[in-house]
Amino acid sequence: MSASEDVSPCGVCGLPVDDAHDRMGHDTATGRPGKRVDYVVLGKRGGIAEYQGIEDRSRIYRTDAAILAVQLGIDESALIGSLFSCWVSPAEHGVIRSDFRCISGVR
C-alpha cells in the first residue's frame, strides 16, 4: 500500500486529508477548502498593484491594479495602503483567490 492510499478523503470537501489540508479550513457555507487571508496593498508600478500578507510578510504578490480595485469596490487611486481580505483556496497549480472584501480604503 502506498502513502497516497493511506490518506483518507475529507468528509466535507473530498480532498485528501494530509498536512496541507490540516493547515486550511473550510468555508462553512460551501464546504470548499481554504482560509481567509488579510493583505495590505504596498504600492503600484504602472498598472500592477503589489500587496503582501499581513501575517506572512515573506512574499510580495502582484496583480492587475484596475481589477483589484473593482474586486474591492474602491477607486484605483485609493489602493495604496488599503487593507483587504480574500478567500484563498488550494488549486492544482497554486491557489485561487476569491470573495475579496475591503477592510479599509476609500469607497
How is the topology of this model organized?
Blueprint: H1 3-6, H2 19-23, E1 25-26, E2 33-45, E3 48-53, E4 60-64, H3 65-72, E5 83-91, E6 94-104
Polypeptide structure, described:
This protein has 107 residues and is α+β, with helices and mostly antiparallel strands. It is built from 3 helices and 6 strands, in the order ααββββαββ. Strands 1, 2, 3, 4, 5 and 6 form a 6-stranded antiparallel beta sheet that branches. The model has no long low-confidence stretch (mean pLDDT 83).
What is this structure, in a nutshell?
This protein has 107 residues and is an alpha+beta fold. It has 3 helices and 6 strands, in the order ααββββαββ.
Order of helices and strands: HHEEEEHEE
Query: Oligomeric form of this entry?
Result: single chain
Structural class assignment: alpha+beta
Q: Supply the number of helical segments.
A: 3
Give the integer mean of the pLDDT values. 83
Rg from C-alpha positions? Answer: 16 Å
What is the CATH class name of the domain at 33-104?
A: Mainly Beta
- What's the story with the biggest beta sheet? 6 strands, antiparallel
